[in-house]
Amino acid sequence: MTSIEKSITGLVLEYDSGIVPPPYSHVFCLALDWANGDLTVQLDLHYTEREELSEEEIFDEGFTLNDDYSYKGELNSVWIKPLQQLFNKTRWSSKDIEDGGITITALEKGKDEGVKIPSNQEEWQLMAQDLIQAIYETVKKEAPLKIDYRQVNDQISDCSLTVHFSVREVIFEINGTSRVVNWEYAIQLMKIVFTPDYHYEMAKETAGNKRGAYINCGDGYWHELGKGVMNIDPTFDAVSKIKVGFADLIAGE
Questions:
Q1: Residue 182, number of CB atoms within 10 A of its CB
Q2: Per-residue pLDDT of the chain (253 residues; tens, 9 = 90+)
Q3: Which end of the chain is more exposed for a tag (fewer CB within 10 A), N or C?
Q4: What are the backbone angles phi and psi of residue 198, rounded to the nearest 5°?
C-alpha cells in the first residue's frame, strides 16, 4: 500500500448525468468513509427534470414515480482496496465537465482535500454504479444479477454466472458445482452480455436443445445467440465474445 493509499480515509463521488434526457437524467452523491476500518456509505440519488414528462412517459421507460433513493449505513469492507487502487492510479484533469460526469473529493482523516476531476471518467462511473448496486443488494432492494447460459455442442452444458455486488464476488455454477471467478473478467463479460440487441418476439420460456448457445438474462426468457440476439455495432462482435466468454468458463479456463 502506498503512502497516498494510507492517508486517504474516504472519498466523495458526485455525479451529474448532464445532457442525458429525462427520465434517465439524474444526479447523485456517494460518500464513502473507511477511517475506522469499516466502510460506511451515504447515498443520495435524485432523478431530474421529470416535471416535463407525463406519468405514462415515465412508466414506458421502465421507471416509477419514486425512483429517488437515499441510504446511510455500511457496505462490505471488500470494496475499500479497489477504491484505494483506483484512486491511486487516477490522473486528474483540468477540464470542466460541462456535459456531465463525475468528480472526486478525497478525505484525509476527515479533512476535505478539494474537488478533483478524474481523467478516467468511465472507470469511476462504473465503480460508482457497482457501489450503488452493492447498496441495493445489501438492503435487499434488488437481488444479485444472475445469467443462465446453455451451450449445446455434442452435449448440453447448463451453467450460470451470479454477480454478488454486495460482497464483490462472482460465482460460476455448472453441473451442481460452483467456483469463484475473477471479478474483472466477469464484469467485462456481463457488460458484453448487455451490448447486443435482444429480440423478445423470438424469445422462449425454455432453453433450446439444438446445437447453439442460449442465454437467459434473469427475466425468465431464453434467447438464442445469433438468432434472437444480434449485434448492434457491425465493428464489435458481441455475440461471439459472449460465446467465447462462457465457453472459457465452462472449460474451466
A1: 11
A2: 444 445 899 999 999 999 999 999 999 999 999 999 999 999 999 999 999 899 999 999 999 999 999 999 999 999 999 999 999 999 999 888 878 999 999 998 767 888 999 999 999 999 999 999 999 999 999 999 999 999 999 999 999 999 999 999 999 999 889 999 999 999 999 999 999 999 999 999 999 999 999 999 999 999 999 999 999 999 999 999 999 999 999 998 5
A3: C
A4: -100, 120
Q: Which helix (H) or strand (E) holds 84?
A: helix 80-89
What residues have CB less than 8 Å from 81, skipping those under 6 apart?
A: none
The CA-atom distances, in angstroms, between 172 and each of 149, 183, 253 are: 11, 11, 12
Count CB neighbours of 222 within 10 A: 20
227-242 in b/e burial notation, b at 16+ Cβ within 10 A? ebbebeeeeeebbebb
Residue 212 cell numbers, joined: 447453439
